[in-house]
Amino acid sequence: MSVLSSVYTQIPPKEPDIESQGYELTRKESANRSLRATDAVEITVGEGKNSRQFRAHRRQLLKNSAYFRDVLSSNRNRRSVFLGGEDKTVFTLFHGWLSKQEAAPPYVPNSYSCEPWRSLAAQAWVLGNRLDAADFTHYAFCQFILNCALVDLSTWEFIEAQTDVGSTLRRFSNHWIAWNTSLAQTEFATLEAASLSDQVSKDTRDPRTYHTDHWKLQCSDALDSVCDHNIGAKAIANQRPKPKRLHEL
After folding, report:
1. In terms of Cα–Cα distance, which of 11, 225, 203 is closest to 109?
2. Is the pLDDT of residue 103 over 80?
């Protein structure tokens, strides 16, 4: 956990364990049995005893995931998909988002999501990337920004191992690790991005305060970027008195 995490005390109580949440979702799925057979797609996630079946609306899958669009469009009669290599708990996050289509949460200081989003947002981002589900990937990215101060070292190691250089999550991760390392946070010393700490300057800001579009662009590769995407910096600039014109003197 970063040195800044200690200042955040408003942590919501933990939700029931993951299996309990899965049971609730299963009950919700059972309520969707009214879906016509032609509208439903059965998705098996995981293998053997660790697998779980999900039921989703075909049109929702086609609309929100290029992966499912390719798989299902190639055979209009296909009613099942097998994702043996994915994690069923992480897929639960995609399945839940698919049915609700909630807007991505903004970054609010001292505010955090409940589990499992609090711990698994990075894994959800990777899943969304694999499924080529842009809106879900963005949602997961915003969830990660909101909760990143609470994740442990293994999550940052996962990001460096499972994301491409230049991806939004990797860029944000690099900034966060370098920034915290510059504040004498030795927890991140073994991470690749810790070597970027010598690029941190007085202009380096908390990465959570940038607009999410920032991480899609090359300006995010500079740790001391003073681009217009820094929402916090713009707010400060707007508070400065503007020089008066001659006719106003």
Report:
1. 11
2. yes
